[in-house]
């Protein structure tokens, strides 16, 4: 019975995964699940899945084909007249989509399957060490919870045979205290692959609420995929107009300022964070910059190019620039990056015209497995 239940549950989970894959692009573009995100689970509305259930009728009430009536009488009522549709609106709730809880790891796997994202190739420079207990040996003392049954039985059997008390016709073996064996452990130290995402966003007046919502949705999916790839992931947030500053996640997506835009201020702060907190031989580093493409001057753009060449690109796995289309932005910066870094494998640029372009942008950023 337990095996049958497990099989049914597994089959149902496969149906759910299929429905999520079928509607994934809509979930991504609409941001439908972001408001349902918990610490480790996301509740996703799944349409058109009927949950199997038993329906019990009242006793002594008859059933189909039972009770009084003649052939041709309508089922469920005495009147043959059809309704005219003029009744009042009903007060009962209609059918709703089923919400299922999906772990972020499952969500990342579905994302990877749907977008055909390759597993990320770790740079192999991680020196961060994590301690992990492994049960690798046997000893004579320990708590009962760690008693090794097979080894204990073998010791008891060996003692009984040596003492001549073992009877094959009545093979009862009672372990004594000296027969007991317990699992022992040792602490292994192994490298842990860690990563940091440094999000940067232009918050000048040309970046409106819709542009920031696009960034919020895309960053959720980027986080979800990278957390599946690494055992430890940190996120840092930088906002900038003419001046850059580090903020928390909530401030990052809600701040709206005005004034000029100097992108180099964000790149300088990102380079400083990397230098002070994330040495490249220990961390996998992913800066993501979102903007509408406006910059204060060509001089500042050239400063950005120098910062990328000298201080950022040599240390990071990937530098990603997403340009969110705005009715007020010139869109020039992505052209400048393509001109200077078009041949650089570690620089990925993407134009995000609207919400429907988020899926393609994620694939452009993560599709190389860097």
Walkthrough of the structure:
The chain is α/β, with parallel strands linked by helices and 370 residues long. The strands form three sheets. It has a six-stranded mixed β-sheet with strand order 7-6-5-8-9-10, sandwiched between helices. Helix 6 packs parallel to helix 7. The longest helix is centred in the first third of the chain and has 29 residues. The chain is flat, with a radius of gyration of 31 Å.
Say which CATH homologous superfamily of the largest domain is assigned.
Answer: von Willebrand factor, type A domain
Q: Quick one: biggest sheet?
A: 6 strands, mixed
Please provide the ordered H/E string of secondary-structure elements. Answer: HEEHEHEEHEEHHEHEHEH
Query: End-to-end distance, in Å?
Result: 46 Å
C-alpha Rg, in Å?
31 Å
CATH class of the largest domain: Alpha Beta
The name of the CATH architecture of the largest domain is 3-Layer(aba) Sandwich
CATH topology of the largest domain: Rossmann fold
Strand residue content: 15-25%
Provide the spatial order of strands within the biggest beta sheet.
Answer: 7-6-5-8-9-10
Continuous helix count? 9
What best-fitting shape do the alpha-carbon axes yield?
flat
- Number of distinct beta strands: 10
């Amino acid at each position: 019975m337990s095996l049958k239940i497990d099989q049914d549950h597994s089959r149902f989970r496969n149906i759910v995964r299929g429905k999520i894959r079928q509607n994934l692009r809509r979930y991504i573009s609409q941001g439908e699940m972001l408001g349902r995100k918990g610490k480790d689970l996301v509740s996703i509305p799944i349409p058109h899945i009927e949950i199997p259930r038993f329906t019990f009728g009242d006793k002594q009430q008859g059933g189909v084909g039972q009770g009084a009536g003649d052939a041709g009488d309508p089922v469920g009522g005495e009147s043959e007249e059809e309704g005219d549709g003029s009744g009042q609106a009903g007060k009962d709730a209609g059918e709703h989509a089923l919400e299922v809880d999906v772990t972020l790891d499952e969500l990342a796997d579905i994302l990877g399957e749907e977008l055909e994202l390759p597993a990320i190739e770790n740079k192999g420079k991680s020196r961060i060490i994590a301690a992990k207990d492994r049960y690798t040996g046997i000893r004579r003392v320990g708590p009962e919870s760690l008693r090794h049954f097979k080894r204990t039985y073998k010791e008891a059997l060996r003692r009984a045979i040596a003492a001549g008390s073992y009877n094959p016709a009545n093979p009862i073996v009672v372990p004594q205290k000296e027969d007991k064996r317990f699992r022992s452990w040792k602490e292994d130290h192994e490298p842990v692959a860690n990563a940091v995402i440094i999000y940067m966003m232009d918050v000048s007046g040309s970046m409106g609420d819709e542009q920031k919502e696009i960034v919020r949705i895309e960053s959720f999916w980027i986080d979800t995929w990278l957390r599946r790839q690494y055992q430890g992931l940190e996120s840092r947030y930088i906002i900038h107009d003419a001046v850059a500053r580090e903020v928390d996640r909530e401030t990052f997506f809600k701040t709206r300022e005005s004034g000029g835009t100097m992108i180099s201020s964000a790149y300088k702060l990102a380079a400083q964070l990397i230098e002070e907190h994330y040495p490249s031989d220990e961390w996998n580093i992913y800066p993501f910059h979102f903007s509408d493409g406006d910059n204060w001057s060509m001089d500042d753009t050239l400063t950005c190019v120098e910062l990328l060449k000298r201080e950022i690109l040599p240390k990071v796995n990937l530098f990603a620039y997403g340009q969110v289309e705005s009715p007020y932005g010139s869109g020039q910066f992505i052209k400048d990056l393509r001109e200077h870094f078009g041949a650089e494998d570690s620089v990925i640029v993407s134009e995000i015209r609207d919400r429907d372009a988020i899926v393609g942008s994620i694939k452009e950023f993560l599709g190389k497995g860097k």
